[in-house]
Amino acid sequence: MADDDDEEIIQEFEPRKTISDDTLKDELDKQIDVVNRNAAYQIRPPISEKFKALAVKEVINAILHEELGGKEYSDEDSVKWTKNIVTNVKLSVKELGFKRYKLIVQTILGQNKGSGVKVGARCLWDADTDNCASDSFLNDTIFCCVIVFGIYSY
């Protein structure tokens, strides 16, 4: 009787179907294709979306002449002028449409008494994607320097 049970068990057991290497490779290739089609993350910006220093410099120049043209230096007004310049430059540069760029605007405004001023800046960045633009304004009583850094967010 024990032999009959063993025979029944053996007869009921069917071996698994094996998958050929070619079938497995085809399935894996299909999954890789789906992943590649869904991978839209870009490491670098397209050329059309890169930070354009010349366009930013023109924006800075226009805002400096608009804000400071025909004015004389005043201690009380210099803080307000500086804040206006920073805000207007940042908003205008954002309108240029540099996607995924973090903008840093540095403005130095002071009284022009005939002495020289040197302004410098250093950054550690990716030379392929990041850039900066600067412009300055000078009249008889005011000097102003604006630097805009465009740092690409990965």
TrEMBL record:
Native organism: Menopon gallinae (poultry shaft louse)
GO biological process terms held by the UniProt record: microtubule-based movement
Entry coiled-coil feature ranges: none
Recorded family membership: Belongs to the dynein light chain Tctex-type family.
GO cellular component assignments: cytoplasm; cytoplasmic dynein complex
CDD domains, per the entry: DLC-like_TCTEX1D2
Superkingdom to which the source organism belongs: Eukaryota
GO MF, one annotated term: dynein intermediate chain binding
Pfam families: Tctex-1 (PF03645)
Name this polypeptide is given: Uncharacterized protein
